[in-house]
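Reading a protein record of the kind used here takes only a little practice. To see the layout at work, look at the sequence and tokens printed below.
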Amino acid sequence: MYLLIKKFIFVVLFVFMLFDSGNTLAQKVSDPAVIEGVDYFYKAKFPQAIESLRKAISTGKLPGDDVFAAYLYMAFSQMRQNAPQDSVDINLVAAIKANPNIEIDGTKIPPDLFERFVAVRKSTLGGLLIVTEPGAASAILMKQDGNEVMTRYTPALFTNLFAGPYELVIAKDGYKPQTALANVSASRTDTLIVILNEKKNTIFKKWWTWGSGLAVATAIAIFQKTGKKKEKEGDLPEPPARPKP
């Protein structure tokens, strides 16, 4: 029993050290079936590893880090079984989708497995650099399904994005917000330059303020010059004054 517990702890710690996310926090794997599958892999029992990992995935209840590990070691076990490359890549992509920010430590796994993971990751993910004039604007990037919202200050670099369309909103105090549809391509980082326009009163408001003021000033000037309003058409003139004796 002690040996089993010791082996369990060793596998958990090894998997803990193997994964390294973009924010440098190590990933935890907790599901017993996933841990068992990883253990079978390192014992070169690849059919048992695939069976255990497939069983864990089929529950549909694994947390994100466990999903990543399950698909990753499924792919690694398939590679050791000389499975078709398409099948291997499908599982690698599934692992990347579970958490695109996780990077694995290439010093702790065989080079061929690590290189294949890196190649698939690069061919699956892309990036977007947002530059604004002026800078220090808020860049909000949203997946069209609304499941993920990312915010950066410009110049803003968004990495580890899956290829496809994203909605972009640029906002800065004193400037008109701008929206755009940004298309991310796999295997590359594209740059989008956005020129922001200052907020100003509309032409209508400016014209109305200037025009109405001119009209009032003109009316006052005319009234002061004539001293009285124009008589209405049809009014009879007043009778002449009686001559003085």
